[in-house]
Amino acid sequence: MHKRFIALIVASAVAITGISASQARAADAEDIIGGLAAIALLGVAVKHFSDENKKNTVTHNYNHIYKAPKKHVRKQPKHRPHHVRPLPKRVARYNLPQRCLHTFEGYSPKRPLLGTQCLNKHYKYSDSLPQQCKVGFWNGKKVKRAYEPACLRQKGYRVSYK
């Protein structure tokens, strides 16, 4: 819009200058034709710039048909319908196997313990168990070692019942 306004001002200034100059001296046909040609050239330039602006404009067609969203049904994979992801290693290392929970002769018959040999066999991190929870007791033949489940629970371990 501002380009048209500037072109109009320039065209009118040239036209007025041509008219005022022609009044000061005798106007002949050549001067009038020259002024009209200058005005015509300015008009062509203004039209050219307005056509260029129309080419660069973006038009949008908002007449599109609405389509209802498709229903997304999440299906279970056929090869493992009840698959449960395993716990991460940093969490799974605190799960102690239930199969190692036994009552031992020579210790309280009502309080089960976690056997060291069983833990060495079935628990990968048996070396990192806290030594404060290890108890020793006499079974009549020799001193046996095992872990107290209550003490291990206080340290963050748990017996996993699978």
The number of strands is: 6
Structural class by sheet pairing and helices: alpha+beta
Radius of gyration: 49 Å
Strand percent estimate: 5-15%
By DSSP (H or I, 4+ residues per run), the number of helices equals: 5
Mean pLDDT: 78
Distance between the ends:
79 Å
Low-confidence stretches: none
Report strand order across the widest sheet.
2-3-5-4
The main pleated sheet reads as: 4 strands, antiparallel
Helix content: 40-55%
**What is the string of helix and strand elements?**
HHHEEEHEEHE
Shape: rod-shaped
Question: In a nutshell, what does this entry contain?
Answer:
The protein is α+β, with helices and mostly antiparallel strands and 162 residues long.
Secondary-structure map:
Blueprint: H1 2-24, H2 29-55, H3 89-92, E1 95-97, E2 101-102, E3 113-115, H4 116-122, E4 134-138, E5 143-147, H5 149-154, E6 158-160
Parallel strand pairs: 1-6
Antiparallel strand pairs: 2-3, 3-5, 4-5
Helix pairs in contact: 1-2
Keywords:
alpha+beta; 41% helix; single chain; four-stranded antiparallel beta sheet
